Every structure is written in C-alpha cells, then in structure tokens.
Amino acid sequence: MALQDLTPQLRTRLSRMERAVGWFVFVATALLLFGFGYYIYHTAERKGWFVIKAKFHTYVQSSAGLNVGDPVLMMGFQVGQITLIHAMPPRDAHNVRVEFEILDPYFHYLWTGGSYLKVNAADFLGKRQLEVTRGTNGYALVVTQPVSVKTVDDLKQLVSQEPGQWQLSQEILDANSNLVFGAYTMLDESNLQVLAGMNLESNSVYAYNNQEKDRHSIVASWNGRLHRYKIFTPGDDSAWIHAVESPPVSDQLQAMILQVQQALPNVLALTNKIAAVLDHTADATSNLNVTVVETRPLLTNFAVLGAQLREPGGLGVWMLGTNGAQQTQSVVANVDTNLLLLSLTLDHLADITSNLNAQVQANTNMLGVVSKTVGDADDFVQGLKRHWLFRSAFKKENKGTTNAPPRNSLPPKMR
Fold first, then answer.
1. For a FRET experiment, which of 214, 349, 369, 407 has its CA 20 to 30 Å from that of 173?
2. CB 128 within 8 A of CB 121
3. Torsion over CA of 240, 245, 251 and 252, rounded to 10 degrees?
4. Residue 85 to residue 64: CA distance in whole angstroms
5. How confident is the model at residue 401 (pLDDT cuts 50, 70, 90)?
C-alpha cells in the first residue's frame, strides 16, 4: 500500500512512530559508544597508558620462568610489567637482557641507596617473577626534570638572575677523587667560585632548574660510573638496575638431588651399621632371656624369703632360728629382772648416800674429828716405827735396791 493511500490520521501516527524509533536508535548508539569509550579508558588507565612510564633494563643468567607481560612487583603492589626478553650477543659478558617498565608514581621510590631488582621463584613449577626494592637514600634513579649542561660562567649569570633555582645534577670530585659537592647541591656564588677554580672538563657542569615543570616522560637516569645523570637519547632511553638472581626451583631441586646422591653411600653404610647393631641387640636379648630363665628359682627363693620376713618377728626367726628366738626372749626376760634388781640396789645406795649426807650436814665437826683421828693414828704408827722395840716389825728389805737412804739421814734416835 502506498503512503499517499493512507488517511491523514494514519500518516500522522506513522510519522510520530518514525521519530520515536529514530530517537531510540540514536540513544542506543550513544550509550553503546559511551560504554565502549569507558571500557577503552578504563583499560588504558589500568594498563597505564596515561601515566609516565620509566624504562629499566637488567641482566640475568637465565630467562627460565620469565615471560613478556609478567608483572613487576614492589612492596606487594604490581608496579609495572616486563616488555622485552632477549639473549645477548655471543661475545657479550651478559647472558640475557630483560627490559621492563615501572609506572608513575612508583619509580619515584627507586633510589641509588637500597634499590635493586630481585628475581624470585613464584611457584614450584619453575615460574619466576621480578620485584624491585624501595630505596631509602642516595639519588633518584630516573628523573623527569630536564637536565642541561651549563658552563660555570652561564651558571653565574643564571644564579644571579634566578637565585635558589639551580642545582647540580652530578657529583663534583677533586683530583684525588674526593667528593666536593654532591648532586642536588644548591648553586650560589661561593659554590660557583669553587667550581671555577677546579679546572673542570670544558669548564661545564650538569645542572637543572628546580622550578621547571616536569616532562611527561623520563629524561635522564643516574649513572654511577660517570657520577652524574645521563641524558636520554632516542636510542638509549632506559635506566640500568642491578639484579640479584636466585636460582630456579628446578636447579635447586637438582642440587638437592645431587647432594642426596652424594650422601647416599654414607646413609647405606650407616644403615648397615644399624643392622649390625640390631643383630647384636638380638643376641644380647636372647642371652638375657636365658639368664632370666636361670635366675627364676633364685627369684622364687627371694619371694619365699620376703614372705617370711613380712611375718611378725620374721627377721629374728630367720637370723637366730626358732630356738634362738626363744632363748633370746628368755635372756631378755632375765636381763629385765637383773635390771630391776640393779635399780632397787641403786635406790638403796642412794638412800644410804642421802643418810650419810644428812649426818654430815647435821654434824659439821665430824669431818674435822675424823681428820684429826687419822692424823693422830699416823703419828702413832710413825712413833712405833722409830721405837727400838718395834723397829724390826716395820723393817723393809733394801738389799737389791740402790735407792736406800744413807745412814746419816736417819733420825738421831735410830742411829
């Protein structure tokens, strides 16, 4: 049916429907383009297309476990990725060159003091990964501020015009390789006077203006051999970083297997010695079994003896016999009786002694009288000895002695 055959009302409705469909297609296309653009932006942001990338390179012994596109880590964060891995020429001192990128702002953590690259094992299947360490001091490995070469005279003029803006981008050493000025030293008239008197090469130094805006790319990297920042050229725009490489897990396992193989003869020899010791132990055990069988009657006798000793008075019966125990009991009874009699005797003696003591205490002159009586009796006996009639009764025989008193020593009455 032709459009002109429709009624005016149908043509009006159809035109409205066409406009609605057109707007729907336009909005859907716009949303599709917006979603596609957001996806591209998010992917670019995730991959770091809009941030500054610092290119680095290092040298490793082997590329095993490393692949292009693998992440580069720092402090547990993914800060970049590997961009190139290739072998060095035959006569080169290095084996494999690995190039990678570090995204902004993580390359600002890399300094000459403490920053290096670690090649670690990622799993037990031979996979390895790169990890850069955070620096703590020294100079930044890469910079985004332009570095320029200026003569000392030019720097004098620039410092006079822009004081406090120019700093060194290199280390200044004297003739004895002693450090005079370090990098980042602020230049002033006194420093420039010292530099002018040092007869530098071409009378120029590397310096930068700290007020100049950073570029959107890395412009220079620190070169430790030259003691200055090296300005990038189109063919050389990556910085070198030292790598500390741990051997792959497969190599470590191979070394472990070799050690086990080397130690295996010693282990077998030790096993043989252990077997011999076990054989000797078995022989000793069999001999001990025979000894135990032979000592079983002895143990039985000890058991019987122990049972007898556990009975009341068993020790005495075992030592003295049955009659001996009875005799011992009778002796003990007699001793008890004798001890009782002795106790009574001692009691009587104590009574007598106490009576004598009481008599002595009652008559204080008794001891004096007794002493006088004893002295008089002694005098009486001595008189009898001297009397001629009784002298012979008390005469002592001194024939064989040489200790007899001389005759002249006798009393006058006996001569």
1. 214
2. yes
3. -170
4. 11
5. very low
Helix (H, G, I), strand (E, B) or coil at 402: coil
User: Which two three-digit tokens encode residue 401?
Assistant: 């002695």
How far is residue 54 from each of residues 12, 27, 269, 313, measured CA to CA in Å? Answer: 64, 42, 59, 104
CB of 62 closer than 8 Å to CB of 44: no
Q: Tell me, what DSSP letter sits at residue 89?
A: P
CA–CA separation, 10 and 8 (whole Å): 6
Phi, psi of 177 (to 5 degrees): 65, 30
Tokens of 83: 């961009």
DSSP designation for 340: H
Could you tell me where the DSSP H helices lie in 117-243?
152-161, 189-196
> Which pairing describes strands 239-240 and 111-113: parallel, antiparallel, or unpaired?
unpaired
Confidence at residue 410, expressed as pLDDT on a 0 to 100 scale: 46
Q: What confidence tens digit (pLDDT) does each residue in 356-384 have?
A: 777 767 776 666 777 788 888 888 777 77
Burial string for 174-205 (b: 16+ CB within 10 Å, else e) reads: eeeeeeebebebebeeebbeebeeeeeeeebb
Q: What is the pLDDT of residues 100-123, one digit of tens each?
A: 999 988 999 999 999 999 998 888
Query: Which of 54, 48, 58, 51 has the alpha carbon at shortest distance from 221?
Result: 54
Q: State the residue for tokens 């009691």.
A: 347
Tokens, residue 154: 């030019």
| Exposure class string for 137-168: b at 16+ Cβ within 10 A, else e | ebbbbbbbbebeebebeebbebbeeeeebbeb
Number of Cβ within 10 Å of residue 248's Cβ equals 18
How far is the C-alpha of 288 from the C-alpha of 49, rounded, in Å? 86
- With contact defined as beta carbons under 8 Å apart, do 94 and 245 qualify? no
Distance CA 73, CA 102 (A): 9
